[in-house]
Amino acid sequence: MAHTLVQKIIQAHLLDGEPTPGSEVGLRIDQTLTQDATGTTAFLLFEAIGTLRVKTEVSVSYVDHNMAQFGPENHNDHLYLQSVARKVGAYHSRPGNGICHQVHLERFGRPGATLLGSDSHTPTGGGIGMIAIGAGGLDVAVAMGGGAFYTTYPRVIGVELKGKLRPWVSAKDIILKLLSILTTRGNVGAMVEYFGEGVATLPVPARATCTNMGAELGVTSSVFPSDEQTRVFLKAQGRQEQYQPLAADPDVTYGPIAKCLHAKNDAATIENIKTNCTDAKIGSPDEKSMVEVTFGHVVIDLDALEPMAAGSPSPDNVHTIASLAGKDVRQVLIGSCTNSSYQDLMLVAAVLKGRTVHPNVELGIAPGSRQVLTMLAQNGALADLIQAGARIVESGCGPCIGQGFSPAENTISLRTFNRNFAGRSGTKGDMVYLVSPETAVAAALKGNITDPRTLEFGCPVIETPQSFLIDDGMLQPPADEKEAAGIEIIRGSTIVKPPAGQPLPDDLRGRAIIKVGDKITTDHIMPAGALLKYRSNVPEYAKYVFNCFNEAGKATFADRALAAKADGVAGVIVAGDSYGQGSSREHAALCPMYLGVKVVIAKAIERIHQANLVNFAILPLTFADPADYDKIDANDELVIKGTSKAIESADTVTVTNKTKNFDFVCNVRLAPRQRTILAAGGLLRHTRNV
Ligand code: MIC
Ligand code: SF4
To answer: pLDDT by residue (tens digit) across 419-445?
Structure first.
């Protein structure tokens, strides 16, 4: 039987379960990565599990998110991470060395390996032919200790790339086009695999832009074949010996892929599927106007692709640049793990050389890594950027996670980033468009959204360098076991041991602490930006759960949840569709758990967040009939009888709304291992006991 590349890599790492789409499998993890905003908790949990040394091929602790250092919290975290990494056998990438995904691609990623990272954009590694997956810190802690990572054996969505990109059109436009076809919803349990003649035309960093933003599709991972481009990249990084060619079997077929879309709301998506997918079949709307759509695989014609943008508040709100052209732009930011490679920034520098940024625009540039920044400095491109008026930001996440550069009110900000969730930039009502570096730099020069193909000069051609500048001086290797014994872990007072979960009571009396709508992201649940510094202090950070819904002078979510806890009542969160989209931050489960939340009832829950809820002993339920969502209000008293049975084996459970006096049914969609974890009171207790 012919296999996809996804299947080949996964089957080579299968430790447990059947390789059937939809079933739960345990995978051997070769590499892990953590970053500081999730990493302190991950390492604290690793310590709590009791494993003494890391057991993977390589584990790397990066510091890239939290570098503003107002108050001692961030530096306390850095010192903790540096000392704990050396002691337990992990590499440590110091602040300034770059964004975890960019540095990992440059220095560690290898074709055919599995990578688990406590960051949702870990799938960036798929650009170099690895199966790279984002997860909560506790899952990564378990993998660091040699434990399997459990996930759904995926359906594989094939994406065929035909032809070659035209000048001024780039990889970001490919993934934005894909987002317009697949959207951010309904892709849970799938992985994307790129194939076709167009693949060979894309260098590794361009591929990594596509796999990075696969996170926004909601798929578990995305992967490119490992080929000559991969070899050239690895050779230029001085790691040619890690190259191996990898591809799907030639006669493999992809699909069928099924999606359910709303006939009216998703009319444009249905049209996109009809024109861009093979064997598209569109059903007739049922009484709720839902349409079953199936297709074989997606086809993207690179020759015909145009510059694209995704407008606030979602990465799948995609338009062509031509349709937006002329809108005033006040800010352009270039960087993030999506578009901050050497090639991306060389392109920007070549365009800006000898020119000046438009007087209405502020331009910020954050190079993805110290390697990129040093190379730009050495070849003069950095001077071209500075001379043009760019504000150079240190290599790290910076404005992508709301650390500075919040835009002015009612102004458009163009960013080469991957997320534009409402308010993530730090400004309420922000208008953020996600674009390619080509489109970003065109706006920086013109002061408005400009199709770069209309610029009066040609598009510079940037080749992959023969060799990148290799200097691992800011990558500290782990200490050997003997030396490790003498290393003392540095623990500042702001580093607080995270709480463990508790088994759920059999008869659960609950209260709806909040009712939220569709597409609630983890940024809504646990804000980042200026509050990111509380990541290693759960009691402090928990004060800000659902902060964006708190109203001045009224009890906050935290106040209401703690009041319920004091009344001996469990907190319940009621939510709409796609609850928990976005990041892997387990604080979106950990902090509500700390406040006494024990159940989430939603129309649908996203993959990483659902796993984090289970890991922290919160029961994730989905409405059997979504119409029941409309019948519940905040403050309703909800009772669930027999949770132990439901967790053990049931597919559904009945919830009684005592306030409104009616019963409704919820689905209990849990993989077998998730049931065991919940019964144990969370992953930490489960792991300690096995
Ligand atoms: C993000 O892009 O939202 C983050 C910040 O990188 C998160 C991780 C975190 O919240 O620390 C992610 O993508 O998982
Ligand atoms: Fe950092 Fe932004 Fe990438 Fe998240 S998406 S890892 S915040 S650069």
So the answer is: 999 999 999 999 999 999 999 999 999
CA angle at residue 544 from 542 to 550, to 5 degrees? Answer: 135
Q: Percent of the chain, pLDDT > 90?
A: 96
Residue 189: name the closest of 33, 34, 28, 6 by CA.
Answer: 6
Contact 451, 322 (CB under 8 A): yes
Q: Which residues of 434-471 are buried (b: 16+ CB within 10 A; e: fewer)?
A: bbbbbbbbbbbbbbbbbbbbebeeebeebebeeebbee
Cα 87 to Cα 677: distance, rounded to the nearest angstrom: 29
- By DSSP bridging, strand 31-35 and strand 58-62 are parallel
| Bond into 313 cis (ω within 30) | yes
First-to-last alpha carbon distance for the chain, in angstroms, is: 36
Nearest to 341 by CA among 99, 176, 134, 108: 99
Nearest to 89 by CA among 57, 48, 53: 53
Nearest CA to ligand 2 atom 2: 400
The Cα 242–Cα 111 span in angstroms is 7
Q: Provide the annotated active-site residues.
A: 64-65, 119, 419, 583, 585
Could you please report the per-residue DSSP string of 358-397?
Answer: -TT-EEEE--SBHHHHHHHHHHTHHHHHHHHTPEE--SSS
Structural domains of the chain in order of their starting residue, each with its CATH number: 306-454 (3.30.499.10), 508-689 (3.20.19.10)
Burial status of residue 20 (CB atoms within 10 A of its CB: 0-12, 13-18, 19 or more): exposed
Instruction: Take atom 6 of ligand 1 and give the residue whose Cα is closest.
Output: 119
Ligand 1 pocket: which of 66, 77, 81, 120 to mutate (most atoms <8 Å of CB)?
120
The angle subtended at Cα 519 by Cα 518 and Cα 520, nearest 5°, is 95
- Separation CA 308–CA 479 (nearest Å): 47
Cis, bond preceding 620 (omega within 30 deg of 0): no
**CB-side exposure of 218: number of CA atoms within 13 Å?**
24
pTM of this prediction exceeds 0.90: yes
Q: How far is CA 636 from CA 20, 626, 654, 656, in A?
A: 41, 17, 15, 10
How are beta strands 24-27 and 155-162 bridged, if at all?
Answer: unpaired
Nearest one of 171, 128, 105, 175 to 372, comparing CA atoms = 105
Identify which ligand lies nearest to the alpha carbon of 403: 2
Alpha carbon distance 494, 341 (integer Å): 34
In ligand 2, the atom with minimum distance to the C-alpha of 401 is 7
Over residues 293-332, the pLDDT tens digits come to: 999 999 999 999 999 999 999 999 999 999 999 999 999 9
